[in-house]
Design a protein that fits this description.
The complex is a heterodimer of chains A (about 200) and B (about 240).
Chain A (H helix, E strand, L loop, with lengths): L3 E6 L3 H11 L5 E7 L15 E4 L6 H10 L4 E6 L11 E6 L4 H23 L6 H11 L4 H8 L3 H15 L4 H10 L14
Parallel strand pairs in A: 1-2, 1-3, 3-4, 4-5
Chain B lengths: L1 H6 L3 H7 L11 H7 L4 H12 L6 H4 L4 H33 L4 H41 L5 H9 L2 H7 L5 H13 L6 H46 L1
Helix pairs in contact in B: 6-7, 6-11, 7-11, 9-11, 10-11
The chains are: A alpha/beta (about 200), B mainly alpha (about 240).
């Protein structure tokens, strides 16, 4: 599991320190950078981080542009009094209020980190190979070309190529002989069937 | 020199390729290289690139003579065919013999590797017969003062571009084989053999990777540069 990383942008030293000490209570987190004024934000693009916690009062025309640019990959969290109205130009994932108790801040952050993890895990779980893909795989293993498979199954060659790519991604096997062995091991084809189409 | 091996025992195979034998006592790398007529700089760059994936001084490597580079590549070919491939074949053979429950599966692996061996053989053979002689002839022309028309004829029939285009990914099948054994092969009783085989496959794959890297990032750019300069010389004339 990789660390959840934070960038904090806030003028007040006390508030920054306080927030950092709360974040560090959560295992596997790290505050990689802190800024105390809007002028330095240009270098923000050089950092990769999961979250940015920013005081919306520090947003001006320039900083807004910078944040917009990087916000595609980073989740934004506001840090302000409850009464502050957030700009609609940015997409905020969460709000932390200065009035919040430690527990409610921890709760908010934990939820965010939790969401991030389930998202990551999901993409890493190997997907099962589908029925259609098994059909395609069978034909590949039997020695048919993309064109032949397309004609046989009444689909376009392009679709066959897409299926092949997905099969390779799911199985981790790229070459035809490799796929053939997989097909035999999994009884998708019989060992005596191989190379029939070529003869 | 002993420290080199102590640091990373994979270097043993590289030493072997340079014809350096063990038993060199406390001699330094430089002393051992001198004694074996090995270019120290070249040896160091090759060894370092071999053990450290992130270290690859391609600009520096390109400055070495073609002969040094092709000789080294040639020796790695020998190493594959005379040592590594037979070793893997023996292991697979042993697996076939010791397995009763799924002999047919192991026989599949054997066939797969056999085809691969043939592919590797064709691949290296073509390099030795066509590519290396071409690069050497080109270097000779490059270094000589006279303009010899035969080199232009040679460049008409072949160019390093052709090599680069037909230089297929020879490691792909090894990766497949590895994945099949790790993920999909019903595990034979004799897992010791299976692990040994995997270890050898990893080893060979890594070595071939290093080998291809030298070809593609050192030899090809170097020759392409020479081709350009030679063509220029002729157009000037």
């Amino acid at each position: 599991m990789c660390k959840a990383t934070f960038i904090i942008i806030e003028k007040s030293y006390l508030i920054r320190k306080g927030l950092i000490s709360i974040i560090e209570k959560i295992p596997n987190t790290q505050v990689i950078q802190q800024f105390d004024n809007e002028d330095d934000l240009k270098i923000l693009v050089n950092f990769e981080s999961d979250f940015i916690i920013i005081n919306p009062n520090l947003l001006n025309a320039n900083t807004l542009e910078i944040i917009k640019k990087i916000a595609k990959n980073i989740q934004l969290i506001s840090l302000s009094e409850k009464s502050i109205v957030l700009t609609k130009e940015l997409e905020w994932t969460a709000q932390i209020y200065l009035e919040d108790t430690q527990n409610s801040i921890l709760k908010k952050l934990n939820t965010l980190i939790g969401n991030r993890e389930t998202k990551n895990v999901k993409s890493e779980v190997p997907e099962e190979i589908s029925k259609r893909e098994i059909d395609i795989l069978k034909n590949i293993a039997l020695g048919y070309s993309n064109k032949e498979i397309a004609d046989k199954l009444f689909i376009s060659t392009h679709t066959v190529v897409t299926h092949r790519k997905n099969i390779t991604r799911k199985l981790g096997i790229k070459t035809v002989p490799g796929l053939t062995i997989y097909a035999i091991l999994n009884k998708i084809i019989d060992i005596n069937d191989t190379g029939k189409s070529k003869s | 020199m002993a420290d080199v091996i102590h640091t990373n025992y994979f270097t043993l195979s590289v030493l072997n390729r340079f014809g350096i034998e063990l038993g060199f006592g406390d001699k330094s790398v430089e002393e051992v290289c001198k004694k074996n007529n090995v270019d120290v700089d070249f040896f160091l760059e090759i060894v370092n690139a071999f053990i450290d994936k992130d270290y690859f001084p391609k600009k520096h490597l390109q400055t070495f003579p073609v002969k040094l580079i092709t000789d080294y590549l040639q020796k790695t070919h020998d190493y594959y065919h005379k040592l590594k491939v037979p070793e893997i074949e023996n292991l697979i053979e042993e697996m076939v013999d010791s397995c009763y429950t799924q002999k047919e599966n192991i026989v599949l692996l054997k066939k797969f590797f056999n085809d691969y061996k043939q592919e590797l053989l064709n691949h290296t053979h073509r390099e030795e017969e066509v590519v290396f002689p071409y690069t050497l002839a080109l270097e000779k022309a490059y270094n000589s003062e006279e303009l010899d028309n035969s080199v232009i004829e040679l460049m008409d029939t072949y160019s390093i571009e052709i090599f680069q285009n037909e230089h297929d990914d020879i490691e792909e099948k090894l990766l497949d084989l590895r994945n099949i054994i790790i993920k999909y092969l019903p595990q034979p009783k004799n897992s010791k053999l299976c692990n040994k085989l995997l270890y050898e496959l990893f080893n060979l794959e890594q070595d071939i990777n290093d080998h291809s890297r030298i070809e593609e990032k050192v030899l090809v750019p170097k020759i392409r540069e020479m081709e350009k300069i030679i063509t220029k010389r002729f157009t000037k004339k």
